[in-house]
Amino acid sequence: MHTAAGAEARLPIRSDMDLVWVRQHVRQAAALIGFGLVDQTKLVTAASELARNTLVHGGGGQMEAARVSEHGTEGLRLVFTDTGPGIADLDRALSDGYTSGDGLGMGLGGARRLVHDFEVVSSPESGTTVRVTSWVTRPPRPREES
Amino acid sequence: MNESSPRHVAGHVPVLRLGDVLLVTLQGDLYDSAAQQLQQDLAETIAHSRVTGVVIDISGVEVVDSFLGRVLAEIAAQAELLAARTVVAGMRPAVAITLVELGLSLPGLRTALTTEAALELLDRPIVTPRSGGRRQERP
């Protein structure tokens, strides 16, 4: 039986084997923090999309996972970083159906719908960082302008 | 580096033949490369064994992302061109919910709740081809 060492981790993303590790860590961390089954599945799926972007488009990188707490609500934050060429047209990359080659073009936009908070910073100099957070129970909040 | 391998990882997917049907059972977490290998293997196997149906049991799969979703859709499309029908069986409710939210409702994919139901579905005569309507006779 594997014992989850906790939610905190820094995992390399260099191969499709690493994608499996990312999914398994996010699953274990989300369960540990108290996410229900559907929310676990959404978070793991989002992590899989983002990790694959890091691998395929960013040329590899890493994911950092951390347990976060805000106003008494527990959450899981995942940060994907690469030092690749960056995303030239972010608005386009976030729209459905956009693909730079493989996949169904659901990666970035799809992942955004599966998490509560989503933030992406990208430039040709520093690569791409995607930061996502989901909360165990979503507190009521006004819809964000996007 | 962690030396142990992740739990329930499928590096190779076995394909079982049951009469006219190929039965594929996906278990646990699948490498991208294993999914792609399966896609190629299935096309070859369908062509050689001349089966008329493929059932892919995904009841043991916890996560279907856009990559695996695309592989499933492409397997079904390939099989169709090779005169075999594909049914994806046993999708978990959490996976279905997530796929729709992801924006991937996979409209071309036939599904069944269980492998038994999938086999029954394949037993029935083809009523509607994939275009959705009956083949039109030439006027």
Element layout with pairings:
The complex is a heterodimer of chains A (146) and B (139).
Chain A: E1 9-13, H1 16-33, H2 37-56, E2 61-70, E3 73-82, H3 90-94, H4 107-114, E4 117-123, E5 127-135
Antiparallel strand pairs in A: 1-2, 2-3, 3-5, 4-5
Chain B: E1 9-10, E2 15-18, E3 21-27, E4 29-30, H1 32-49, E5 53-60, H2 66-81, E6 85-89, H3 93-102, E7 110-112, H4 115-123
Parallel strand pairs in B: 1-4, 3-5, 5-6, 6-7
Antiparallel strand pairs in B: 2-3
Structure description:
The complex is a heterodimer of chains A (146) and B (139). By secondary structure, chain A is an alpha+beta fold. Chain A has one domain: Heat Shock Protein 90, CATH 3.30.565.10. Helices cover 35% and strands 28% of the residues of chain A. Chain A has a 5-stranded antiparallel beta sheet with strand order 1-2-3-5-4, covered by helices on one side. In chain A, a hairpin with a 3-residue loop joins β4 and β5. In chain A, α1 runs antiparallel to α2. Chain A is globular, with a radius of gyration of 15 Å. Chain A starts with 8 loop residues before the first strand and ends in an 11-residue tail after the last strand. Chain B is of the alpha/beta class and 139 residues long. Chain B has one domain: 2-Layer Sandwich (Transcription Regulator spoIIAA). Helix content of chain B is 38%, strand content 22%. Chain B is built from 4 helices and 7 strands; from the N terminus they run ββββαβαβαβα. In chain B, strands 2-3-5-6-7 form a 5-stranded mixed beta sheet. In chain B, β2 and β3 form a beta hairpin. In chain B, α1 runs parallel beside α2. In chain B, 34% of the residues are buried. The N terminus of chain B is likely disordered.
